[in-house]
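=== RUN LOG ===
request id: a7f3
mode: sequence -> structure
chains: 1
length: 170
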Amino acid sequence: MATYYSTQYAEQAVGGITAFNSQFRSDPTLSHGRVRAKSASFTTASGLGAGTVFSIATMKSSDRILSCFFECGNIGASSATIDLGLYLVNSDGSLGTLVDVDAIVADLAVSSAVAWADVLAIGNRSQTLYEFAGASADTNLQYIIAGTTADAATDATGVINVLINYTSGD
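=== RESULT ===
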């Protein structure tokens, strides 16, 4: 019978089967980091076009996202979607250059009301922002998590709510 150890006990091997390592020290953001939250709310206008950006939160590249809750009213045209992605932060703290428009979540359908739900894929839980950005090591940058309308414009006013639970990389 195989024994499976989590990332609290050892580095993960292929297939997840590892040997216990009493000297292993897991990453503090996985083992004993404090869970924090970023919350954002927007009221949309009718007639927003594709490419409209909703700046949600500024976070450090070493922050680990645990969950991303999202809800909205029926704000979109029949094929409207929103992507959650990453932008760099300008020196004045404003939205900078796009890193990846759908790094966090792709194609959230908003053509009908979206009930409060965690939209982060299971395989993406506990990833750092630099991993979402496609980097293999900490970039030591700040990113803005933002929603971007994708396929179609909004055709109704409504509210978008987002809650991101994370552990800080500091």
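=== NOTES ===
The mean pLDDT is 83.
The beta strands are 35-44, 53-60, 64-72, 81-89, 95-109, 114-118, 127-128, 142-149, 158-167.
=== END ===
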